Input
Amino acid sequence: MAFSPALTSLIDALRILPGVGAKSAQRMAFHMLQREREGAAHLARSIEQAVENVHHCKSCRMFTEHEICDICANERRDASVVCVVESPADVMAIEQNTDFGGRYFVLLGRLSPIDGVGPNELGLDILRQRLAEGTVEEVILATGATVEGEATAQYVADLARQHNAGVSRIAHGVPIGGELEYVDAGTLSQAFSGRRAL
Output
């Protein structure tokens, strides 16, 4: 059975979400049109506003509606300590589950030559500029405990050492192959406080 073009387009659009296949997208589309039309309209407006207004912080690459995000703009945060993470979700996990008071740098990925992701795609030129300013004394590596995450951590560690910054890595209480975004609060807090120098 063929659906209307508008319904087919909605189902296809919902499939861009992670973990959403054809059946889940169809179920969501039917639910919105059958029971949540007002909610669906609000969702559409919110997505449109976010796409138009949310971009990356010029300093750390976190999501923001301003040139500099609230974390980077907060003068009470320690600018001498920078935590390097793979995604904005990792920043949120650390902020919600630890007492970290430094600043961040968001890679928006990890080194993966097979997928065409190199240092330029991770914004490491921006991090290099921050390190060259000489205010960063410690770089905390909080990349995932995957092969790519470890390779990325090693690359960033070498970059930090070139600029005379100390380097530490969060403890491996985070399971191998795990993503920070999905780690429970206790494990993440313990891993963060137990970080060690490389």
In short: The longest helix spans residues 37-53. Strands lie at 55-56, 63-64, 78-85, 102-106, 138-141, 166-169, 196-197.
